[in-house]
Structures are given as C-alpha cells and as structure tokens.
Amino acid sequence: MTHPPAPNWLRQQERSNLAILRLMVWISLTLGRSIGRLVLYGIATYYVLFAPKARKASRKYLARALNRWAQWSDGFRHVFYFASTIHDRIYLLNDRFDLFDIEVIGAEALHASLEKQPGALLIGAHLGSFEVLRAAGRGKAGLKIAMLMYEENARKINQTLEAINPAATQDIIALGKMESMLEAREKLDQGYLVGMLADRALGDDLTVDHEFLGELAPFPVGPFRMAAMLRRPVFFMTGLYLGGNRYQIHFEPLADFSETSREMREQEIFAAQQHYADRLSHFCRIAPYNWFNFFDFWQKKS
Questions:
Q1: What are phi and psi of 15, to 5 degrees?
Q2: Is 98 exposed, middle or buried (0-12, 13-18, 19+ CB in 10 A)?
C-alpha cells in the first residue's frame, strides 16, 4: 500500500527520537539508571538551545496548559520529561519494574469490561509513557497489550526494540496493511487490549476539529473509525511521568461501540472523539510536561 510522504514534523520527530533512544540505550545499559539520568540534563539543555522550532511549539502548548507564560525552565522541564520517559523505556522493556513506583488508577472498570467480553481498545496520545503501561500490564495487572502503529513508525521502533529486548516487538501491529484490521481483531478475541494513539494525523489522514485546551484543533478520525468497526469498548489510557521513578497510569471509559448501529456510527464517533479531546485537555493541565508533541498542533491547514 502506498502512503503519502510523511509531514515534516513526523520526519524530524522520528529522527530525533531514534537518535536520543540509541544514545540512551548505550548509556543506560553501560552505566545504569542513576548515571544515565545525569546525561539527560545535557540532552535537555541541548534541545532547548538548539531546536528552535520544537522550543517555540513547546512554549505555545505550555502557555495553554499552564495558563500562563511558559518560562525557559518550563521548556527545559518539558524536554527533560520527554528524555526521561525514553530513558526509562530501556529498563521497562527489560522487565526492571523494581526500579519504579507505578500507580494504576481505573483498572477495575477495565477488568469489569473484560469479564463481559474478551478484548478492549485503548486510545491514548503522545502523553507520558506508553511503555510503562505495557510494562504494568505484563508485570502487575496481568493484562496483555498490543499496539497499533503506522507502518513506518513500527518499522523504526522495532529496529530499536529488537536491540533492547527482541520479545518486545511481538505485540506491535503495523497499520497500513490489508491484514492490520484482522490482526487487531484476532488479538482482541484472544483477550488483548489493543492500543492506538489518536493525537496525530499522518499525511492526508482525515481530521475533524475538536476543542482542545481552549481552541479548535485537528484530530485524526481513523483511530475512532477503526474502534467502531472493531465493535469493542474503548478506554482512554495514559502513563503519566511524575518525576524521579514515579509513574501514574490511568484507564477511563471513553466509549462503547459494541452495539453501535451503522446509522449512529458517525454521530457516536464524533462524540467519542470530543470526549477524548476533553480528557486529553484534562490530563495536559494536571501533567503539562507530559505531552510530547513538539510541533504546532493548532496550525491550520492551508
């Protein structure tokens, strides 16, 4: 399947992410977490000083989330949190849960849903750490979690994950293939939670404007249409980084497409997407340094 060229923010962001991740893999596995975290200060300083586009986008976002002017220290903390979650991914992928204090909120509703029927969908954002959620699922909550990703992103991430822990790539489903939907449905039938991120559009993806942090912003429709087609309950998910070694995972009921009729599908998709944007706004305000979209999210299409 042929895809349109990735937008500039996606190409830039993936290059940056992979460069940071490869560096932190070496540092973390060689020197340990405490020493590795010292290097994060240098990495965060470098990006704040020498990535003007990302710094400008960070400042605009933080001004909305903090409801005040974002200082240089806010921008530094924003990038530092991002680097911290990447660094911690190394240990989480190697099942070093003992290094972290992880609190899970809302798991009861999720387990109750899974008792009624196998499988549920998780829809999140580039907010905090998805890896801590997968780790908690494997290590604490007894949940099996797979992740749907754009094909190119999945390929790049798999290359890095294989160098850390080859088993970590087994539960990633690449979007953009004819069999993607079948693979997702098979995982759901096996009792998996299947996760998607719904705060970025790729190329010519259809988007709908929803209110987010006080202004309309474009959100991709694709993840919610897929959720409706898979006819499962949908939960908002996020793994917030709270500093140090602390994480807080949240599960919240978002929508339930199990009984949605074809006639009501678009209406319920729109309502679910606005609910998603509302909850994303909420968590961005209570944990503002956790949203890792370092580009102009509110930029209007030409």
A1: -60, -45
A2: exposed
Residue 60 has φ and ψ, to the nearest 5°, of -65, -45
pLDDT attached to residue 5: 47
Q: How many CA atoms lie within 13 A of 46 on its CB side?
A: 8
* Closest among 23, 28, 21 to 156, alpha carbons compared: 21
Residue 198 lies in a domain: yes
| pLDDT tens readout for residues 43-75 | 899 989 999 999 999 999 999 999 999 999 999
With a CB cutoff of 8 Å and minimum separation 6, the contacts of 55 are 47, 48, 75
155, 124, 121: which is closest to 3 by C-alpha? 155
What is the model's pTM?
A: 0.87
- Tell me the pairing of strands 193-197 and 215-220: unpaired
Residue 295 counted as domain residue: no
Note down the domain range covering 259: 8-290
Number of domains composing the chain: 1
**CA contacts within 13 A on the Cβ side of 18:** 16
Residue at token pair 């009984």: 259
Of the candidates 21, 75, 88, 66, the residue with the CA atom closest to the CA atom of residue 46: 75
Torsion angle of the four alpha carbons 141, 174, 78, 221, in this order, in degrees rounded to the nearest 10: -100
CA distances for 97 relative to 82, 135, 142, 174, angstroms? 19, 8, 14, 27
- DSSP E strands in 75-170: the ranges are 101-105, 120-124, 145-150
